[in-house]
Amino acid sequence: MPTRAASPRYLPLLVLLFVGSGCAALIYEIVWFQLLSLIIGSSAVSLAVLLVSFMGGMCIGSLALARFVSAREHPLLMYALLEAGIGGCGLLVLALLPAVGGLYTSFGGSGFTGLLLRSLFCLMFLLPPTALMGATLPAIARWVETTPRGVSWLGFFYGGNIAGAVVGSLLAGFYLLRIYDTSVATFVAVAINLAVAGAGLVLSRRTAHAANHEPELPASPRGAWPVYVAIGLSGMTALGAEVVWTRLLSLLLGGTVYTFSLILAAFLLGLGIGSSAGSVLARSVARPRLALGVCQLLVMAGLAWGAWSLGAVLPFWPIDPSLSPRPRFTFELDFIRAVWAVLPPACMWGASFPLALAAVAPGRRDPGRLVGGVYAANTIGAILGAGLTSLVAIPVLGTQNAQRILIAIGALSSILLLVSEPVSSRRSPMIWRGVRVFAAADVAILLISLVPVTPALLVMYGRAMATRFGNFGRPLYVGEGVHSSVAVSRDRDGSLNYHNAGKIQASSGPQDMRLQRMLGHLTTLASADPESVLVIGCGSGVTAGAVSIDPRVREITIAEIEPLVPEVVSRYFGAYNFGVVSSPKVRMRIDDGRHFLLTSGRKFDAITSDPFDAWVKGAANLYTREFFEEAKRHLKPGGVVTVWVELYQSTLPAVKSAIATFLEVFPNGVVFGNTQRGRGYDMVLLARDDTARLDVDSIAARLARPEFAEVARSLREIGFESAVDLLSTYAGSGATLEPWLAGAEINRDRNLRLQYLAGLGLNTYDQAAIYQQILSYRRPPVNLFTGSENRLEALWKATAPVTP
Q1: Active site (annotated) includes residue 610
Q2: What pTM value is reported for the model?
Q3: pLDDT 10s digits, 12-53
Q4: Residues 608 and 692 in one domain
Q5: Which of 512, 610, 613, 682 does the annotation list as catalytic?
Q6: Are 711 and 781 a contacting pair, CB within 8 Å?
């Protein structure tokens, strides 16, 4: 009984359904990654686990459909049920994750056991919905024939799915999560799933389906294995390159949530264009395996193009993002630059999928098994490419050599296909195969030799590289780690700079030293007995060093996400951070700070947090209400918590959000300002786990004691001669700033509002105006400080109200 092919008039409708399916899938992916990273951490290891779990589920689903669902079932009905199931899983993940997340944090930790628990936790939530997602294309494939024309429609379905994914990534990143939260985004995705399921159900009732009762050929037709291996290697190069290029583009454009959405959209756009072109080609090409081999040759060229663009071209375009009057214009330019680098190779990867289908289609009777096998091979390669590149290739070999390896893998994929493809000439076929191999190998060697070194200035200054007009520090160290790229430079005046995330994060310059030591010294001096202190974020180590020299501190735990950082700062910043990394007081923990706190059963006398800028994707996890509540639970009675908040490269709503969120958990919190030439620069938020006032006399008495001589000297080096000088940086409190903070958006786990607000101010410098607003609400801190009349009078005078 022959299979009844789908009516041609309905096939374009199926493409539209796959657009909706892809849109919902990307919304889920972004939402789930955001929710799960809050629990298992946002380190590269955690993200690799998330990605492997997500793609592993899709691989399982693509293989399982043909093996467990009879071909007699109507493909459109199965497709509708799968889409409805995905929507149901989306609601379950949203409802169950908060409750089960608490169970994970009771057992989770670091090391192999922690990695295993993270994997099991992600699989528990991601495997059911992603398996259903992976089964959708094989399910609908059973509605077409395995003819060249039918296979080309499978490519169009795949392309439509990717087109929807482009829309979903932009919709989630620029609207749903920026304006609303993960609940609303999930409901939108569920609504799309249900609409697609409803349309599929209606179509299934209006169309007939007759299954093929002839026995299916083996899962891998004879001689087809090179195609499966090649498409797997293609997936490996695609996801490996995406990891490398995301690292480099986030330096070039700034690592905001918007940048990651733009990079993903550009990559998916190329896949969609390539898939559509490959589908058209698959209808008429006589030798699809040879076409796929040539496509892999072009993948090598695309990899070289991306490497050349990101290493030798785009960083040197004379672009000054700060000139843009609106973020929209910057986003448009960023998208153009991402497309410039990513689109050409992504088109080749997109074209590879329909050509691979065409290469293994002849003689196949179950299109579902055909699609499932090719899709699974591609996905397995993608999993390996993403995991090995992010966790091994980049940190061990660097981005330049990682890209060279990817080109070599592309050459292997191409050679495998070109050698296995029969030679048309009957004379000397081995010679002709040898010619193909040597030609592909020669091209690969040439392209590998052309991959440029990742510019040190890009690692150091990122998007500001082209606007510093030669005002660069001399690079002393450049390294690419598991999570980020790190550099150290020396300015002409002799000061050292610590670079991370494409900018100077800390330095030995007066401005940064003042902030870093303020953060450390306020943490311990405000505490009655800071015996144990948690420092979140090592950075240059200056804050931790300031904590370490307090003689009452017995133990310091530093949670640092990037393994490179402790080694680098101990080598270059030891003179400024009091050699803190090698201090016997210090216990270094390489982990995401939030994950460490969630999974730690310990309590501390003080906690200080100095993470990346709030606009860096993932940094807002350390500024949420839930995180501050967790920090409060980990404080001993009378404990102190301090947090750094930047005013530069931010927006007024973002600053308000950070302060309001902190004060909602710590209503008695205090704001201290670090100024530059008398104008606002950044701030320290401080709170105690009790209602006790800060005793100026006690702090002064400590600084006068011999054992505190090093602390007093450290404060003098940054301009504070006394306790009154230090506390005179007071800029406001929960009570005084309440009117100013009215209507501020609270940064919650479910919305991470801060990263979206701060990301809009990445290229702005309104710190002076923002700080002036804060000072206009400052009043003498009568209920915050206690001490002798003379010291309090001096403090009141120094903190008198400032009129705008």
Answers
A1: yes
A2: 0.91
A3: 888 899 999 999 999 999 999 898 888 888 777 777 777 888
A4: yes
A5: 610
A6: no
